[in-house]
Each structure stands twice: as C-alpha cells, then as structure tokens.
Amino acid sequence: MDNGSVKQIVVLYPVGGVGHVGPMTQLAKIFLDHGFDVTMVLIEPPIKSTDSGADFIERVAASNPSITFHVLPPIPTPDLVATSPKHPFLLILESMRQHNGTLESFLRSIPRPRLHSLVIDLFCTHAIDVATKVGVPVYKSFASGAGTLAVFTQLPALLAGRRTGLKELGDAPLEFLGVPPMPASHLGKPLLEHPEEELCGATMKILRRNASTRGVLVNTFESLESRALRALRDPRCVPGQDLHPVYAIGPLIGKAGTGGEGHECLAWLDAQPQRSVVFLCWGSKGALPKQQLEEIAGGLESSGHRFLWVVRTPAGSDDHKTYWERRGEADLDALLPEGFLERTKDRGLVIKTWAPQVDVLNHPATGAFVTHCGWNSTLEAVAAGVPMLCWPLAAAEQKMNKVFVTDEMGIGVEMEGYREGFIKAEEIEAKLRLVLECEEGRKLRERAMELKKEAEEAVQDGGSSGAAFLQFLSDVKNLRE
C-alpha cells in the first residue's frame, strides 16, 4: 500500500436498507483483509422502517466494529413523503441526490493521500459527479450477478426509441448477449413501464450512467457466470461507449457459524439424516398469503419428506407494519391446516420468526432449498452445494435469477405457477420428490457440489476472485499515479 504505514481509506456508499448494506458489508471485509480502513457512508432514508433507519444502522455498526459508519447530516427540506405523490423509489433517489453536497464535504475532509476510492452501489450514480469534483476514483459494486448486470447493461440500447413499454411483450423472450433468452415479463417492474413513465425513465438514467464509473465489482465468480462475464467484456454489450473493467470478486456472503449458534433449528437438524431435509425460506420479506401457506403444507405432508420451514405473517396482516415489527406474531395454528403441525411433528419443524440461513444451508442434513431466488440466497446455496427449487416472487431480479439458476447453472428447477403467483400442493410434492428422490435430482446435487468446490477455489489464495480483486487494487493504484 502507499504512504508507508498510513492506511488508505475506502469509502463505501450504498442505498440504505438491508438488501444493499448487507452486501456492502461483505465487500468491506475484503478491503479490511487487504489492509485498508473502510468507512461506510449512509443517509437516513425518507421512508422510515426498521430495516433502513437509525436503529438498523446502529445494529449493523454494532455487529461490524472494524467498519466506520458515517451518517450524513440530514438536509433541511420538507418531508418528501408527506409532500410528494412519487413512488418510494423515486423519493429515495431524490433524497440521496440532495445529499451530494454533504457527501462532497465528507470526502474532502479525508486527507487526499489517504482517500483510496469511492465505491457506490447501483442506485447511487448521482455520486459519480461528486467523485469527479473531488478527484477520487469511483467504482460500482453490483450486489447481484453478472447475468443481471449483462441484461441491465444492454437494456438502454434495447429501449432506445421504443414507443411502448416491455410489459406489452408478456412472456416473449428477449435476446441479450451472455444469458439465456429472457422473458420480457421477468425484468423488474420499473423496466416494464412505458419509457416515458417517470419510474422507467429514472431507472434507465441510472443504467446509462453506470458506464461513467471506472469499473464494476460484481458479486459472482468467474466459473459460475463465465458467459455473462465474457459478454460484459464485449464491445457489443455497450455500443458506442467505452468498456470498463468488470471484476468478479465473489461470492461475497456471510460465513456459517457467525450468528446462528444455539438456534433451535440447528439442534433439530443435527438429529436428521444427511441430505434429507428441504429448507423453505423466501427471504426477510417473503410473506405468503394464507391460501398459499395451506398449499405448501399440503405438499409437504403428501411428500413424506423432512422439512424446515420459515413462515412469516401473511401480507395483508397489519400491512402498515414492517416484517421486523410483526415478526413474532405469526399464529401457526390459524395459518396452517388443522392438525398439520401434529401430524408432521416427527419429520418437520416450522419456525415463525427467523432462521440462520447460511448455517442451515451448510448443515449436512439439508438436501434442497425452496427459495425466492434473491441473489444473496442464490449464492449462499451455491456456496453450500445445495440444489434449489426456484419460487421467485415479484421483487427485483428474482425471476431473472430463476432463469440463470435453472437454464445456465443447472442447479435448480422451477416451481410451475410462480408466474401466476400461486403454486399448488401437487406441484410442491412433485418437485420435492424430483429433487430428493429421482435421477434428475441426483444430477442437480452433483452439479451443486461441483459449483461449491469452484466457489471455494475462487476465494482461495490464487483463486479467480482473489486475483480479480488484486487486479482492481492495481488498476486503482495506476489511476492514482
């Protein structure tokens, strides 16, 4: 590193909220391991919730004492939520844009020789102008995979000149470099709107501006998404623009044994046969309606297989509360079929709050994972060598990830009915039997174990992800000199 024993400072700047701060925290640990000091800059978002406000920031800071957390001072403006009818996403973007001045002041307060780089996440492109004024190299951290990044990178050219939104195409497949044919309906909701709609326009502006950074740190590894990474290094991916480096530095995920110790489900798993349990969890906001929970229960019971199931309070129950505010209120007897818990008590465990997902996936008893296909959950399953039963919900890039998991990586099967938002008990039973009993399931498990080994090799000394990160550091050094 430069400057003898004086550590350089990397500034990380994510949008607030667990889905963005979590991956940035894992990235921070990589910088710390390489001898840097790390400061994560946050703002309190205009929409207060327990997974993005002051209490959330305090919890994250307390569990990561090696990272310095800096909350930018609030901007004295009218209450955006009370005064604007805009979509919440647009309010967050506007709030962060208004903090450009305070972000610039903070960056200038760091001695120039010590300020190594600014790393922003996907939705912080407004900070690129700040970095340019300060004269610090700015990079993007992309918390999802290379396949999604390849699609996002090519979307502005696809939408240029369109007079209608992509929603009208339904499930018609779209062709992108580096990924399987992608149903138009699988793109994120803002991207399906008419190009002149404010939400779609703001999203496209973000995607176009991402080319203004010095490069992208992607949460994936080379052998997992080699085709998508090749596409991102192909000039055809960004016609008319300069190509910037793409560094595959993942998987950036939590480690087993760092938060779930003593949880009741781990002791229960200890008593189950190897690779015999299906784990069902749809992420921190994956609350399914009562009718769907009843179908899941029916499928689990009919399958005869062991299961560990995280049940959240259904959507529509106290909707004004966040998940974390109502996390302990699920009444299993009221939500599940009468007698289900008693009939399955010898082979199933239902949890109504939270399970240590990384620990569960890495437990020898876990044989399959029913997942919403969020990228963090996908990578955690890949790193644990567990095949997936893909049940994407409506949020973000989950449906695209389903395509990558099933068609590209070959470590999962889709739960038919997810497009309509309802999956029947018969489908659940059939897919459980397929993965845990059939020849196709055996092949999925073998492929999953191959990818687990490749993930381990990627982050070892001399592995592809470690080499990519060292190349990133070298490129930053050359820029600074």
TrEMBL record:
SUPFAM superfamilies: UDP-Glycosyltransferase/glycogen phosphorylase (SSF53756). It holds the Pfam family UDPGT. Keywords: Transferase. GO terms for molecular function: UDP-glucosyltransferase activity. This is Glycosyltransferase.
